[in-house]
Amino acid sequence: MNLVLLGAPGAGKGTQAKLLCERLGLSHLSTGDMLRAARESGTAVGREVAAIMDAGQLVSDDVVMALLQNGLRDATKGAILDGFPRNLQQANRLEQLPTFHLDHVVSIDVPVEALVERLSGRRSCLACGAAFHVAFSPPEREGICDSCGAALVQRADDREEAIRKRLEVYEQSTRPLVDHYSKKGLLRAVHGTGEVGEVTQRIVKSIGVER
Ligand code: AMP
Fold first, then answer.
1. Active site residue 155
2. Which of 6, 35, 70, 153 maximizes ligand 1 atoms within 8 Å of its Cβ, making it the mutation to test the pocket?
3. pLDDT at residue 137 is higher than 70
4. What percentage of residues in the chain have a pLDDT greater than 70?
5. 107 has pLDDT over 80
6. 3-class secondary structure per residue, the chain
C-alpha cells in the first residue's frame, strides 16, 4: 500500500508518518528529511538546496524526484510519502512512475494559528529526526534529544519569517493538490488537532485499515 500525507507545514505529517509506518509496516519517505540528510553530509545536492530550504521555498522538482525514486527502490512493502508531492508537476511525475500505485491521499487539516504555534515552538533532532515542542512535548533534558542524545535545534525554516513563507508556498503550490486528488477519488480528509494518537486513529479509519 502507498499513501501520500498532505498537509501544511506543522500539520503533523512527519509525526503521523512515523507512527503509521510502524503500525502498517511501510517505509517512511520524507523528502524534507532526505534533503536535510544531504545537507548534513555536505553533498553537492545538499549545498545546492541549503539556502532555498532556509528561506522556506521549494527546491527543484528534479532534485526531489531523484531522491524520492531512490527511496522508493527500497520500499518493497509500500511507502508513506511525507512532504511529497508539493505541487501539481510533482504529482504528475509521481503518476507517471510505472511501478508506483497510489492507494490513498490523506489530508491532515489544522487551522493556521495552530500551525504557527506548533512550528515556532518545534525543536528538532538533526541526528535522528525526532521532533519536540517547547510547550507541548518538551524533551526530558532541555535541548537534548530523548531518543538519541544529540543536541536539539530550531530548524532555520521554523523561524518566523520562513514559517510565513512556507505557509504562503503551501497555499499557492500545494493546496491545489487537495482538489486534484479529490477529483481522482483518492482524498481522505481528517482533522489534525487533538492528541497525536487520536489523529492516527482518524487516519487508519479513513483508509480502512483500522484493527
Ligand atoms: P519539510 O520537512 O517537508 O517541511 O521540508 C522542508 C523543506 O524541504 C521545504 O520547505 C522545502 O524547501 C524542501 N522540500 C521538502 N520536500 C519538498 C518537495 N517535495 N519539493 C520541493 N521542496 C521540498
1. yes
2. 35
3. yes
4. 100
5. yes
6. CCEEEECCCCCCHHHHHHHHHHHHCCEEEEHHHHHHHHHHCCCHHHHHHHHHHHCCCCCCHHHHHHHHHHHHHHCCCCEEEECCCCCHHHHHHHHHCCCCCCCEEEEEECCHHHHHHHHHCEEEECCCCCEEECCCECCCCCCECCCCCCEEECCHHHCHHHHHHHHHHHHHHHCHHHHHHHHCCCEEEEECCCCHHHHHHHHHHHCCCCC
Annotated catalytic residue, options 18, 93, 166, 202: 166
* Residue 114: all three cell numbers together: 495552530
Active site includes 123? no
Q: Could you give the CA distance from residue 125 to residue 145 in angstroms, rounded to a whole number?
A: 6
Please give the mean pLDDT across all residues of the chain. Answer: 95
122 catalytic per annotation: yes
Residue 93 known to be catalytic: no
pTM attached to this predicted model: 0.92
Q: How far apart are CA 152 and CA 146, in angstroms?
A: 10
Q: Which residues line ligand 1 (CB under 6 A)?
A: 9, 31-32, 35, 52-53, 56-59, 64, 83-84, 86, 90, 157, 166
Ligand 1 pocket test: which of 59, 161, 168, 169 has the largest number of ligand atoms within 8 Å of its C-beta?
59
**Quick one: pLDDT at residue 211?**
61
